Amino acid sequence: MPNELFSLPPEDPHTQRSPFWCTECKSGKMRPIPQEGDAGFTDSYICEECKHRDTIPGLSNIMNQIVTSILGGGIASYLALLYIMKLANLQQPQFGEVLKHSALLLVSCLFIGGFVYVLTEAIVGIAQRRAYTQRAKPPSI
Q1: In what order do the strands lie in the sheet with 53-57?
Q2: Contact 19, 30 (CB under 8 A)
């Protein structure tokens, strides 16, 4: 198994300990591991006990996703409502005007869909972080 061949790097006393616990063995602490070419948006971790590896999104990335999706979704929703109102208020609809407002409405709806996807990814990241921060309870006798 590839995880058995991987050895942990020596622990640096200056780095902060991870708050994450392994979801596989339920008893090991997850340690951050450096990755070559890591973009910094996510952190890679490895369990000290069972060598389980996973990538857990950083809290700053999750917060950026939430703020971006709320602000961008709000602006795109405003524009969609604006174009719906413009389409509804056309007195003598010209084909060019209807086509222009319909295309802009479609584009704003696509942006809304993108921002909903980003918000969904943030919620998945929160759930993943929560799963790794909950430590397994010891078995009761």
Answers
A1: 30-32, 42-47, 53-57
A2: no
Q: Which of 46, 74, 45, 49 is nearest to 57 (CA)?
A: 45
Question: Which residues, 6 or more positions from 41, have their beta carbon under 8 angstroms from its beta carbon?
Answer: 57, 58, 61
**Angle between helix 59-88 and helix 95-133 axes, rounded to 10 deg:** 160
* Helix/strand/coil for 17: coil
Over residues 10-36, the pLDDT tens digits come to: 555 445 567 787 777 777 787 777 766
Residue 92: per-residue pLDDT: 80
- What's the CA gap between 28 and 14, in Å, rounded? 21
What global pTM score does this model have? 0.72
